[in-house]
Design brief:
The chain has 24 helices and 24 strands. By secondary structure, the protein is α/β, with parallel strands linked by helices. Among the domains are: 60 residues, no CATH class; 77 residues, Immunoglobulin-like (Sandwich), CATH 2.60.40.
Length: 686
């Protein structure tokens, strides 16, 4: 690797080497570096172009009149560096505040302090209100603009009282009324029950729009958009239009639909395609009925909602075109790929369906969120790292996503070949140039309803592992992101929506991200199954954490206790025979260590799991952790995981229903008593 290539990579924020999770030093491969640099905008095809690309990048940075983004922590703006390539003349400044007020002034360029041979320092107002402000500077025909993010250093933290809640994926939750997967009404019942036991938080996996036809992708972490909800979770019986829609009533009462629903209920997994097709038949009737009404209060409410979501019309057209064509947008004709859609490209009923169904979904999520806030923050939502490669977001914001690149993770002890997650990463420089509009709207979509928000793979705010197309996951390189600016956006939105932020900081976490989370009051995650090690005591969860026994990507606690996950990993080829044996031996040593701490009468095989589970939940509930989250499936000893990372069709990921329905588990003594104990200890802690 030449010095010029290293310098070019540095100027684009690309790391040419790093220490991996196994402690090894990894130097980026030349071809991977070239591919990533091309995706970032460097004009090069081969090593022969590096020197010219380096000079071009230097010129580009030197000619930038002003940085596109500045951060004013706690309202104190830094001086802006101006590069006009001149030493005299007047600089005209215009400052548009978030609230609509405008400040304007002029300065003599020669009177400004020198920042460098090419730049001068422009001082900004001393104290700025929280928000997103726009600065424009002009000098003799040259101009530049910057977004000034005025953010509290610390994100919203609430009243500081100890919190606790429960977790269950919404698709896995089911009641006697469900159609084969949980819906928003079911989640509302769970929230009400949890509040009755004293809990203030209900957590679930992402509830975002999905592709459930063509393409088909049930993973909640590969959504069709991070800006819209998944209508699969709608409860059609609670749609107001049902009162006056005779055709929908007839369909709901039909023997055919009832048989379909019974079949879906009997299946131990969620049949997404069949369930979505069934619900859509009812929802389409309701949508047609709604649009047949000329005027009404409901129509006015719909129009107001559509006006408040400028993206909605484009999203509805995108989904309608995709449904007519039956193929991902990458296979569409060039005009459609490039974003030019016309009425002749879609079926109007389909477009109207998507408009209407997003409104109805938002109504039900709003009602759910209001209900969940009765005892605490309420909904704990999850915003995934990325989106499906054929998503609306990638189509709509083509300039914002890196073409030919997938995000992932370098090799570690479990995934020795690295991980390729498939989702295209965001381009850090375009994020800045666009003023973080996509990030802000993605956050707002969730925070309108969430009392807490989990940021998936929070390390993305500092750096992300990029894997070029057709290269092995281990060949990727890290690309840096403007961490201060991204935390500033998160801080502003958390305060505006009065929501607590949690960062998923499991795995390989660079020290910089931990320091930033601490500095900005973003909670980290404390997971018992990561913390338990043979020969070591259990570390006390810190106050700045959301504590739990496991996560959706880990074995249930019973499977962990019995080392069932080692057998699964061996079966899938992630462990060889020796590694699986070593994992089982470590787990056996851990079991012996924990059992020695129990009273003799609780060490028997029949009683040990329950005793250990109670003890660990008590440790978490008595700890300083800001929040304790209980996976409901652990309370009845579930052994099957919801997801096995690194697998797709090999396992029923994202499809397994909870073993018990709500009516059954909500009255189980082992479930209710465990949660009452958690509540009592949290109250004592408070």
């Amino acid at each position: 690797m030449t010095d010029d290539l290293r310098e070019l990579a540095r100027l684009y924020g690309v790391e040419t080497s790093f220490h991996d999770a196994m402690g090894g030093y990894v130097e980026a491969g030349q071809e991977a570096l070239l591919a990533v640099l091309r995706a970032l905008g460097a004009s090069l095809e081969s090593m022969d172009d590096v020197a010219e690309a380096l000079e071009e990048r230097r010129r580009e940075l030197a000619e930038r009149v002003i940085e596109p983004v500045l951060v004013a922590w706690d309202g104190r703006a830094p001086a802006a560096v101006l590069r006009f390539g001149a030493d005299s003349g007047r600089v005209t400044c215009r400052f548009d505040l978030d609230g609509g007020e405008r400040w304007a002034w002029e300065k003599e360029l020669s009177a400004l302090p020198q920042a460098s041979p090419e730049g001068r320092l422009l001082g900004l107002p001393d104290t700025l209100p929280m928000g997103y402000h726009r600065l424009r500077v002009e000098h003799e025909g040259k101009s530049g603009e910057a977004l000034v993010i005025s953010a509290p250093t610390r994100a919203f933290v609430g009243d500081g009282k100890p919190l606790w809640g429960v977790f269950l994926p919404l698709y896995a939750l089911h009641t006697r009324e469900s159609w084969g997967a949980g819906d928003f009404s079911d989640l509302e019942r769970l929230a009400e029950w949890t509040a009755g036991l004293g809990g203030g938080v209900v957590a679930t996996l992402p509830m975002l729009a999905q592709f459930l036809d063509e393409p088909f992708e049930p993973s909640p972490y590969a959504p069709a958009s991070r800006l819209f909800w998944n209508e699969l979770f709608l409860d059609p019986r609670r749609v107001p239009e049902l009162e006056t829609c005779a055709e929908a009533k007839r369909l709901l009462a039909s023997a055919e639909l009832r048989r379909e629903v019974e079949d879906l209920r009997r299946d131990w997994t969620v049949d997404y395609a069949r369930l979505m097709a069934l619900k859509r038949r009812v929802l389409e009737e309701l949508a047609r009925h709604f649009f047949a009404q000329a005027t009404s209060d409901r129509r006015d409410a719909f129009e107001a909602f559509a006006a408040s979501r400028p993206e909605l019309g484009t999203y509805a057209a995108f989904r309608a075109v995709g449904e007519r064509r039956g193929e991902p947008w990458q296979s569409w004709p060039e005009r459609l790929r490039d974003g030019t859609l016309a009425a002749a490209d879609w079926d109007e009923d389909d477009r109207r369906y998507h408009l209407w169904v997003q409104w109805i979904t938002d109504e039900q999520v709003s009602a759910l969120a209001e209900h969940a806030r009765s005892r605490g923050p309420g909904l704990y939502l999850d915003i995934p790292l990325g989106v499906h490669g054929s998503s609306y977001d990638v189509w709509r914001y083509r300039d914002l996503f890196a073409e030919g690149i997938a995000s992932g993770a370098p090799p570690d002890a479990l995934f020795t070949g690295g991980q390729n997650w498939g989702s295209p990463p965001l381009l850090p420089e375009r994020l800045r140039e666009r003023g973080y509009d996509y990030l802000i709207e993605s956050l707002r979509h969730h925070l309108r309803h969430a009392g807490l928000l989990r940021i998936d793979h929070v390390m993305q705010l500092y750096r992300l592992f990029w894997i070029p197309r057709d290269m092995h996951a281990s060949a990727g390189v890290y690309v840096r992101y403007p961490v201060d600016e991204m935390f500033a956006v998160i801080s502003v939105e958390s305060h505006r929506h009065q929501a607590i932020v949690v960062g998923e900081n499991l795995g390989t976490v660079p020290p910089e991200i931990g320091e930033a989370m601490h500095r900005h009051d973003v909670l980290g995650m404390y997971v018992v199954q990561y913390e338990l090690q043979p020969g070591q005591g259990l570390r006390t969860p810190p106050a700045s954490s959301a504590a739990s026994l496991n996560t959706h990507d880990m074995p249930t606690f019973r499977a962990f206790w019995e080392a069932r996950d080692a057998a699964v990993l061996e079966e899938l080829g992630f462990f060889d025979e020796g590694q699986a044996r070593e994992a089982r031996e470590r787990r056996a040593a851990l079991r012996r260590q924990i059992l020695e701490e129990l009273p003799p009468e609780e060490r028997s095989e029949e009683r040990a799991y329950g005793a250990v589970l109670r003890r660990l939940l008590e440790v978490l509930a008595s700890s300083p952790a800001r929040m304790v989250l209980v996976n409901l499936e652990d309370l009845w000893g579930e052994t099957e995981p919801q997801n096995v990372p690194g697998t797709h069709t090999e396992r029923p990921n994202w499809r397994r229903k909870a073993r018990y329905g709500f009516e059954e588990f909500s009255t189980k003594p082992e479930v209710v008593e465990a949660l009452r104990r958690v509540d009592a200890l949290r109250k004592e802690r408070g």
